[in-house]
């Protein structure tokens, strides 16, 4: 009697162990897979400060004359070139630098630096210019009154004002006359777990995007390994965009 | 004479009735039913839109129920060429009522009033 | 000393009617320009992504700075007890109000979304000096309105000093707020200076008094009321003092900047290489707006009202030029993101930004000035803002009726 009881218990034990293992594996595996594919939050979950989005740009890899990042941004966000560079909106631009003393030339993309202490947010009278909890600096165009004070305050000339009626906007990037705008780190893509269009478009691998708060992310590892600088670091704004090679 | 004048004035007060624009014919959206009850939507759609915009812009919440993009998807109205019309056309779902009520909206200064082809 | 009597002007003369008509036309043009800009978008203006604030802001900031300064005359009488200025206090308060309103109207109409003014009045980011300014400007209107009531209603006169002190302090905070709009912009080479707020305060003294003098003298000449030597001489001395103070502050501002090698670029730009900005600074502000008025006010023999009025006009021209240099010149000079590098991009990095003011911008700015003046013109006709007489015997507490000779006869009707 004891022996058969033991056997039954053994079978039961084995059965429980196996099914638990399968269940656990079945429950965890998809979670691990999803986490690996995308850091995407569920749509109904608010952003938190646990994540801080940042970018590392290697100006050594950036080719003078290439502007794939700029074109990608324009396509993604529906920015149109009308042949009037003074008033056409530009969220990212290529800048060519020549050192006056040595003559050394380099180029790099310039965009909103998504500062942790943004001057544009400080000066906005209505609070339309704001920093999202995950570090992305945005303009809430619903309450932007178009005073352009943020444009005066930005050390990087990152902001553009929309000077005329627009049509055919992208549904994921609403933009309109009389409000100010700038690079959003393609927040509509980031919220889905993708990277900004410029980063995806760079063929030279000069742009890295990721979570600076996660020590295991690619960007955090690189930032630990290489020397990186902030443009106008003297202002103490704690930028989300850092450059290598300048 | 005075009585005539008073009758005319009285009739003029009723002028809105004589001059009333026809009630708008609201085009049907896709599917059986809107995400909220029609009567509720009629009175409160502005509240849903205002709340959702703050949730999305400031907190990154992109639920579909009150998303403006989804409203536009379902409530797209086809024009003569079979393509969805923009808010400039009086046939656009939002224009139909908003023109009748003479309440101007500035949503579509920024948002595209036509559904995007996927 | 007689109690200063203020009375409405007749306001029937063809000149006055023409003035109202002209001001009305300028206001209409300004409104039309604002409507055009709002409807089309700012692409019809000369303002762009590099020069974001243009002619409307030059006029508006001048009006706002002058507004707080215009209240000085009233403050001198209420706060500092100089009775000879007492008859001028109501006009001073009125001018302060109207200039501020004119400036604010221009600012609001230039917004990308002037229809969202109610949003600006209900959503506040209190780290922004703009948000504070909304309170400061509207509060100023309320405080000055109460101050005027205290001044103009006989039984409330006892409170005029207390409210006058509040108004005086308020206007100093307000001008500090206006200067801080620029002083808080750490990123721009020309603005990153704590001096901005004090500079704006002394500018308000000078420009405000200049506008006050012009308005006072013109309304007295136009209405045939007598103006004595004492008041003319006081205005002369005061204006001269303020002009030289501003000159001193501007000199210190630039000399301090010149000491720091980091700022040599911007200083060379403003003082030597900036084309229109250099011209505006030296010819517009320094020469026409300061040196010439100082010479006229101090070295032209016996103080004559016409000379003082001309000087005031020149100070105003210099003030507008200074606003142009500060507001537009400060934006024209490129942001220095990469010190030591030559910078080229397709978004105007590293280059001096060009600005071509457009007609709608001028019309809007001038419309604001016309609006302010129209308020004053209507008010002095309808209410008792203007003193009946500023002759020496009527307002000077130290007046002694001496033997009248040809030299010392006070000029009567102009």
Give a verbal description of the structure.
With 246 residues, chain A is an alpha+beta fold. Chain A has 2 domains: 1-37; 53-244, Alpha-Beta Plaits (2-Layer Sandwich). In chain A, 30% of the residues lie in helices and 17% in strands. Chain A has a 4-stranded mixed beta sheet. Chain A has a two-stranded antiparallel ribbon with strand order 2-3. In chain A, strand 2 (92-99) and strand 3 (105-111) form a beta hairpin. The model of chain A is unreliable at 29-38 (pLDDT under 50). Chain B is mostly helical. Helices cover 50% and strands 0% of the residues of chain B. Chain B has helices at residues 2-13, 15-19, 38-59, 68-74, 93-101, 107-110. The N and C termini of chain B lie far apart (70 Å). In chain B, 18% of the residues are buried. Chain C is mainly alpha-helical. Chain C has a single domain, classed as Up-down Bundle (Formate dehydrogenase/DMSO reductase fold). In chain C, 66% of the residues lie in helices and 1% in strands. Chain C has 14 helices and 1 strand; from the N terminus they run H-H-H-H-H-H-H-H-H-H-H-H-E-H-H. Chain C starts with 13 loop residues before the first helix and ends in a 19-residue tail after the last helix. Chains in contact: A-B, A-C. At the A-C interface, strand 2, helix 3, helix 4 and strand 6 of A face helix 5, helix 6 and strand 1 of C.
Detail the topology: elements first, then pairings.
The complex is a heterotrimer of chains A (246), B (118) and C (414).
Chain A lengths: L1 H36 L15 E6 L9 H10 L14 E8 L5 E7 L7 H5 L5 E3 L5 E3 L9 H5 L6 E2 L18 E2 L5 H4 L6 H5 L5 E5 L6 H8 L2 E2 L11 E4 L2
Parallel strand pairs in A: 1-10
Antiparallel strand pairs in A: 1-8, 2-3, 4-5, 6-7, 9-10
Chain B lengths: L1 H12 L1 H5 L18 H22 L8 H7 L18 H9 L5 H4 L8
Chain C lengths: L13 H27 L14 H16 L1 H7 L10 H22 L6 H6 L6 H24 L7 H24 L12 H28 L5 H31 L4 H10 L2 H24 L5 H28 L8 E5 L13 H24 L9 H4 L19
């Amino acid at each position: 009697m004891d022996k058969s009881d033991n056997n039954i218990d053994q079978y039961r034990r084995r059965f429980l162990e196996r099914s638990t293992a399968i269940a656990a594996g079945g429950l965890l595996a998809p979670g691990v897979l999803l986490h690996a594919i995308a850091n995407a939050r569920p749509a109904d979950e608010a952003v938190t400060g646990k994540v801080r989005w940042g970018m590392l740009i290697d100006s050594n890899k950036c080719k003078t004359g290439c502007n794939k990042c700029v074109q990608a941004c324009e396509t993604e966000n529906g920015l149109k070139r009308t042949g009037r560079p003074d008033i056409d909106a530009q969220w990212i631009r290529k800048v060519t630098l020549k050192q006056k003393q040595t003559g050394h030339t380099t180029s790099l993309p310039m965009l909103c630096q998504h500062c942790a202490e943004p001057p544009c947010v400080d000066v906005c009278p209505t609070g339309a210019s704001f920093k999202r909890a995950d570090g992305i600096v945005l303009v809430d165009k619903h309450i932007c009154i178009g005073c352009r004070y943020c444009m005066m305050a930005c050390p990087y000339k990152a902001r553009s004002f929309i000077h005329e009626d627009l049509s055919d906007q992208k549904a994921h990037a609403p933009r309109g006359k009389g409000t100010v705008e700038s690079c959003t780190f393609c927040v509509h893509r980031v919220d889905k777990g993708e990277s900004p269009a410029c980063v995806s478009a760079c063929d030279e691998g000069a742009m890295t995007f990721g979570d600076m708060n996660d020590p295991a992310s690619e960007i955090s590892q690189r930032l630990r390994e290489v020397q990186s600088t902030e443009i106008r670091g003297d202002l103490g704004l704690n930028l989300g965009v850092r450059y290598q090679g300048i | 004479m005075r009585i005539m004048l008073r009758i005319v004035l009285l009739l003029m007060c009723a002028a809105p009735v004589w001059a009333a624009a026809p009630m708008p014919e609201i085009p049907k959206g896709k599917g059986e039913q809107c995400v909220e009850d029609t009567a509720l939507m009629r009175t409160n759609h502005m509240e849903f839109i205002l709340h959702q915009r703050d949730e999305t812009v400031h907190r990154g919440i992109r639920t579909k129920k009150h998303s403006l993009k989804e409203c536009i998807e379902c409530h797209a109205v086809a024009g003569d060429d079979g393509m969805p019309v923009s808010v400039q056309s009086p046939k656009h779902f939002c224009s139909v009522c908003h023109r009748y009520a003479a309440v101007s909206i500035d949503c579509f200064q920024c948002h595209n009033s036509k559904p995007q082809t996927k | 000393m007689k109690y200063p009597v203020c009375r409405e002007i007749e306001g029937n003369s063809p000149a006055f009617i023409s003035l109202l008509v002209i001001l009305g036309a300028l206001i209409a043009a300004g409104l039309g320009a604002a409507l055009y800009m709002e409807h089309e978008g700012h692409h019809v203006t000369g303002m762009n992504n590099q020069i974001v604030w243009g002619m409307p802001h030059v006029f508006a900031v001048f009006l706002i700075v002058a507004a707080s300064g215009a209240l000085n005359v009233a403050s001198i009488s209420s706060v500092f007890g100089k009775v000879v200025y007492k008859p001028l206090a109501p006009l001073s308060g009125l001018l302060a109000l109207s200039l501020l309103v004119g400036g604010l109207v221009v600012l609001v109409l230039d917004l990308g979304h002037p229809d969202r003014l109610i949003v600006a009045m209900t959503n506040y980011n209190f780290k922004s000096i703009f948000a504070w300014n909304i309170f400061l400007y509207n509060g100023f209107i309320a405080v000055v309105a109460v101050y005027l009531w205290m001044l103009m209603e006989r039984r409330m006169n006892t409170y005029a000093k207390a409210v006058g002190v509040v108004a005086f302090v308020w206007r100093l905070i307000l001008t500090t707020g206006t200067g801080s709009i620029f002083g808080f912009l750490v990123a721009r080479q020309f603005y990153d200076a704590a001096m901005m707020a004090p500079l704006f305060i002394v500018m308000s003294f000078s420009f405000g008094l200049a506008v006050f003098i012009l308005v006072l003298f013109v309304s007295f000449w136009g209405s045939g009321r007598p103006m004595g030597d004492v008041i003319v001489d006081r205005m002369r001395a005061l204006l001269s003092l303020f002009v030289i103070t501003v000159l001193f502050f501007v000199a210190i501002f630039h000399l301090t900047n010149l000491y720091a090698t980091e700022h040599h670029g911007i200083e060379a730009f403003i003082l030597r290489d900036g084309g229109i900005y250099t011209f505006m600074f030296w010819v517009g502000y320094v020469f026409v707006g300061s040196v010439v008025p100082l010479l006229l006010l101090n070295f032209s023999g016996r103080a004559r009202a016409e000379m003082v009025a001309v000087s005031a006009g020149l100070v105003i021209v210099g003030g507008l030029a200074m606003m142009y240099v500060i507001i537009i010149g400060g934006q024209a000079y490129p942001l220095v993101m990469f010190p030591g590098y030559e910078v080229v991009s397709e978004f105007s990095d590293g280059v001096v930004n060009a600005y071509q003011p457009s007609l709608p911008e001028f019309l809007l700015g001038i419309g604001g000035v016309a609006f302010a003046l129209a308020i004053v013109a209507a008010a002095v006709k309808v209410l008792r803002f203007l003193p009946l007489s500023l002759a020496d015997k009527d307002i000077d507490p130290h007046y002694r009726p001496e033997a009248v000779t040809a030299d010392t006869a006070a000029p009567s009707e102009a």
